[in-house]
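Translate sequence into structure tokens.
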Amino acid sequence: MRTWAARVFYVGGYYVSWGWFAVVALALNAACVPLLLLPGRPRIGVHVRRVIRLLFDLWRRWLHMCWVVRVTWRGFDRPLTAGTVYVANHPTLADATFILSRLPDAICVMKPSLMRNPVIAPAAIMAGYVSSGKGVDAVRDAAARVSAGMSLLIFPEGTRTLGATLGPMTHGFLLSAERARAPVELIVIKASPGLVPRGSPWWRLPSVLPASMIITLDRRWEWDPGRSSADLVLEIEGRMRAVLESTR
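Result follows.
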């Protein structure tokens, strides 16, 4: 009986949490629609990013309180610096919200389809998020924002990680970092099975509830003009694999 009651509690908490997320997201984006028509969007953007960070943090705390997702932070006791390119793997739909709740004045790179989605695009545009479909312009836009002091969160695989197998990494994040002369910092995420992985919709229950996630702030590479981009990508990918294999 206790097992059955616990299952009902976790399942109810899971769907209530996503419902809460959807309602708040719709309200935020509706509020951002008229802001798109105002001049001085960059000046307003910093306030939108603060609101997004606050809402993501509240949602993370809610999930933790309800025992739907338990997040363990490692390495985040050291200061986080803006003007940094943060690179992470992407095992679940929820990880970006958790990381953005911690990074200072952060933006991220989003798929073009998401940047055109009327349900979520207004807040993303107002916050200064970058569309990955702009090619070289995306690299320039991201670098300009990092140079202005923003944090950039990017998933170099370009999509959610398939299980524990990392996909090939693109070099776009390094091009942005080099153009901005910014450091690169690695974040490694390990999530319990079935927590909104690649190819799974949010409404499909995770295979494990309560779910868990370990988010590790790992190595940092300072900008080095003499460094090979290809070598650094291989080094970052190798380090990410090593941390994933060692994380328990």
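Note: The longest strand covers residues 211-221.
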